[in-house]
Amino acid sequence: MTxxxxxxxxxxxxxxxxxxxxxxxxxxxxxxxDGTRVSGVTASQVAGKRxxxxxxxxxxxxxxRTALITEADIEDDWTQVKDTxxxxxxxxxxxGTVDVSDFLTAKAxxxxxxxxxxxxxxxxxxxxxSGASELRGxxxxxxxxxxxxxxxxxxxxxxxxxxxxxxxxxxxQFTVTDGNEQRTVQxxxxxxxxxxxxxxxxxxxxxxxxxxxxxxxTLDVAAVRVGDDAITVTAGGLDGDENDSVxxxxxxxxxxxxxxxxxKSPAASPN
Length: 271
Known about the structure:
Residues 28-60 are annotated as: Disordered. This is Lipoprotein. The protein has helices spanning 61-66, 83-87, 106-122, 157-170, 243-261, and strands spanning 79-80, 97-98, 133-140, 143-151, 173-178, 181-189, 198-210, 213-226, 229-237. By secondary structure, it is of the alpha+beta class.
């Protein structure tokens, strides 16, 4: 998967050209249903504790690919794109340096917020997979959805979920500087369907400019752990949130992964 280039050699593309969306994935605990910020807790409702009721086999590359969702698994009119295209989705509005002066405990909080932006750009919100990893991308107008299935058997995806749960408090609003441009970033928690062993969801909004015009990028990010494996979903664009599609991807995708790990064939897509 293409990694984030050096800031000295990166060419910042216009966020309005041919899809301005990065994609990745992320995860959420259940919270309020009114879209307000959700307190950062793990999906098990016990911060820092790990519950793994789902027996899991080792996820193979073939298994990871079988566990990927299809167009029929998500709402609306999403169209699947080539894997090579999805691997190179990166959004220029996510590039920048977090302004440390925005934070009370400056270095620690700024570091977490920088990690969030960098991992969204790099498509590795839960860290780099230690085992099999497959992804699939979808387009709908100017919006994009990236779905990933990966194994973290030599790392602990729960640690990343716990970290994600702290971000609505640590990174509720901050400033990012990229050259002469400043952008405002807001992070809130979003509720997700009860799926997998643990989950966490975020909505990341970036207000800046693209092509000289004001632009707001909205990304809904979800991550769901199933044993030592996880699915991540990142969807959105300049047209607003894609929460309904993310929820559908979480619900259908978590079950597909559980079926694969249990040695079953995933159920036929609902549509």
